[in-house]
Design goal:
Oligomer: single chain
Number of helices: 12
Strand content: 15-25%
CATH architecture of the largest domain: 3-Layer(aba) Sandwich
Largest sheet: 8 strands, mixed
CATH topology of the largest domain: Aminopeptidase
Order of helices and strands: HHHEEEHEHHEEEEHHEEHEEHEHEH
Number of strands: 14
CATH superfamily of the largest domain: Zn peptidases
Number of domains: 2
Radius of gyration: 22 Å
Shape: globular
Length: 399
């Protein structure tokens, strides 16, 4: 199929889902479920997929849902398998953005856009199901629980999802505070991994020593969260600069429990490239020794999510010709402030995650993941469905 043929076919098939996907997103948004508790969301997804005539596996790695869209094209049975992932869980926080579909669950809200990711995943599956006669292979659509705790991808992998469906390539989308119509590719970049350490301090003055210790840990940080539009513009420029200021970075979060006996402190450290973690661990050991603290590392650092340069560039070339996408930006550095366990899928099947612009600043819709006033322009749902369904259809025909 030519690119034009793919775009026309996908647009016509996706249009049948548009209105229903917005309703689905709003339903999920009203009833957010935290990591590991996505039972209602999973049931909604499974019902929609079954209504589209798709077979569904549920309870995969917790509340994970998996469906396979098999092609009907001659030779499709021996064709490649591609994977598309959408995450389902909400953030443990309260929502400030006012809407008629705001969270009805205290302490839980879809502030990271996983409700949009889920709706887009359903739309991708429905669209491809309508195009089975053009699929030269199959697409496995995975709805993952527990991304916020970096547990869900591994749980689904441990449950055998990639053994049952060995994928040639894997793809995903994530909401981003960029204008609607923008998609961002990250060849060789993505999201940093995360290391965790635990300090204990005892004796008189332990609380003050702990505060001083965490101040020293904070001084390892080389990048700060943007606090204004100007800061974000500068960060965006740095992300787009090859070998620029974010080619190497450290970002540290910490928490002190000064009332405990002994006093405890926990640190979460993100770094790029991830090969820096051994040197950073040594620095933390030295800081602990200077403070008279003990330090332990619960396990190895969680791995970074790194998008395959070749697969990302090939996908970006397709997306630049997609009429549903206004602009394809390229980021040459990793987003410093969050991890992403989709990287575990990419360790088994090369591919890419893309950022999907969901912001409309003129309407007060900021699209900033994990902000209490996170809001998204729902036009992005249709764009995401068309872009990803088209990309998957295109990649099934790639050599």
């Amino acid at each position: 199929m030519t690119g034009v043929e793919v775009h026309k076919a996908v647009d016509a098939a996706a249009a049948l889902s548009d209105e229903g996907l917005i309703a689905l997103r709003r339903d999920i948004h009203r009833h957010p479920e935290l990591a590991g508790g996505e039972a209602r969301t999973a049931a909604l997804v499974a019902d929609r997929l079954r209504a589209a005539g798709l077979a569904v596996d549920t309870g995969v790695g917790g509340h994970g849902v998996v469906t396979v869209v098999d092609g009907l094209l001659d030779g499709a049975g021996s064709g490649p398998t591609l994977l598309y992932r959408a995450d389902m869980d909400a953030v443990a926080d309260d929502e400030r953005y006012v809407s008629d579909f705001a969270s009805q669950v205290p302490g839980a809200a879809h502030l990271c856009g996983h409700d949009l990711h889920t709706a887009i995943g359903v739309g991708v599956a429905e669209t491809l199901a309508r195009l089975r006669d053009r699929l030269a292979g199959r697409v496995v659509v995975v709805f993952q629980p527990a991304e916020e705790t970096l547990e869900g991808a591994q749980a689904m992998i441990d449950d055998g999802v990639l053994d049952r469906y060995p994928a040639r390539e894997a793809y995903a989308l994530h909401c981003a505070p960029l204008p609607v119509g923008v998609i961002t590719a990250m060849p060789g970049a993505g999201h940093p991994g995360q290391d965790t350490c635990h300090f204990e301090l005892a004796g008189p003055g332990a609380a003050d020593a702990g505060r001083r210790l965490l101040q020293q840990v904070a001084e390892l940080t080389t990048v700060t969260r943007p606090g204004s539009a100007e800061d974000f513009a500068a960060l965006l420029s740095a992300l787009q600069t090859p070998d620029g200021p974010l080619a190497r970075f450290v970002f540290a979060d910490s928490r002190l429990n000064a009332d405990a006996d002994p006093v405890t402190a926990d640190v979460w450290l993100r770094a790029w490239p991830e090969s820096r973690h051994p040197e950073l661990r040594e620095q933390l050991r030295q800081l602990a020794a200077g403070a008279g603290a003990t330090v332990t590392f619960p396990g190895p650092p969680f791995p970074a999510m790194v998008c395959s340069p070749a697969h990302t560039e090939a996908a970006a070339a397709y997306l630049r010709d997609d009429p549903s996408v206004d602009t394809v930006m390229t980021m040459h550095a990793a987003w410093p402030f969050s991890g992403e366990d989709f990287g575990l899928f990419l360790h088994r099947a090369p591919g890419a995650m893309f950022w999907l612009g969901v912001a409309d600043p003129g309407a007060g819709v900021n699209g900033i993941p994990h902000a209490p006033d996170f809001a998204a322009d729902e036009r992005a749902i249709g764009i995401g469905v068309r872009a990803m369904a088209g990309l998957l259809l295109h990649r099934l025909h790639a050599a």
